[in-house]
Amino acid sequence: MSATPDTSSAASAHDARSPGPPRPAGAVLQDRLAGWVSDLSTLHELTERMVRTDRLDAALDELLRAGAALVGARRGLVALEPDDGLGPDTTVGLGLGRSDLGHIETVPRGELPHGALLDTAALPGGPGEIVRPDLFAEDDLDPRHREVATRLGYAASYALPLHSEAAGRLGAAVWLYDEPAEPDARRRHLAALYTRFATEHLARLLDGERTRSSLATVYEELLPSRLPRCDGVRLAARHRTGQRGGSDWYDALTLPDDALGLAVGSVTGSGPGAVAAMGRLRACLRAYAVMEGEDPVAVLSDLELLLRLTEPARSATVLFAYCEPAARRITLAGAGHCPPLLVGERRTQFVETSVSAPLGMLACWEAPSVEFGTAAGETVLLYTDGLLHRTGQPVDLAFARLHAAAAAVPRALRHDPGAIADHVLDTVLPDGLDATDGAEDVALLAARFE
Predict the structure, then answer these.
(1) Which pTM does this prediction carry?
(2) Minimal CB count within 10 Å: which of 134, 299, 328, 408?
């Protein structure tokens, strides 16, 4: 993080001048103009840095750092508490650890400056700021607040509400001083301008965060709540939704004659429409699998017809496998999807599948099925192409990375499909499956045959 310009340099230089003869009016005006230009440049730099943040947590951190520089403080915290009650409610600290924030939360809410702002900022005539230049000089300082301030080593505070006409109340920020102090009028004016701008940016990020959270919730509800239990096969699944909303999916269902159906797929597009299309596609595949699952080509042909009738502007990749656990035999068909990966003691290889177009790309889809057998203790990995895209590498290198990760699964983990899936994901993805900035969805289904 680049150093923040010292907004007090001009004032400090002026105060340090020794008394002298009166200066010409033009020189005084020139000094004022220079100070205004310096302040505008500082605000411009800080607001530019705020605009570059694209996540709510990063924006809150930037707000604290920039505000601390403007008011001359070293530590602080921001309490996010939108007054619409939709959350998220969180507290973020600058120079304060989790335990420090925990100590502060033990102080009665109304005795804390940000607590008072949170309770009154939305009311007519509510305070625009709270300045407490010397806490220990206050006769009515709450005993618990005195104890916490002594323990954490702060003696003064300056607080501003995060409130605007358009966004309403989002929260409050407070900066803490190690010694008795308070920002001068110019610093307070700059901090108020900056905080007003930052609040509008936080409101936009908050809306985006809520939208992504809602999409992720819907996405989770459209996927299996639990995997079926089937004699001879152990199942595990892993998935994450990307920033733009989930359209990758997986499924596993028991079929007549003690068979098992496994599927993974991806719908083009993102956002609510893609999530809804994914849900419809998965639900229909389950119905087709029950009716004619022993013929995966027929299942995908029916699915392709449905897609063309209900989602003519979309295409989808799908892989459906009809498994016979007792015989350890799998029959599968794929529509433009990545080939499964077979992982065992003696071999780690991609299953050879026929080249086929995604559903919805051709006037009539059809491709031959592939049948193969598995040995006891081997695991079949079905995955979506988001796993490959998240590596950031060309497709051929991503496939090689995936193969190497599967081949390197420790022997002690090979009995557990969940452990195999976790090892593969942790090895293949450079930032891990939980990376908050992952643009691509990831779905992985592992089936270990006993």
Answers:
(1) 0.66
(2) 408
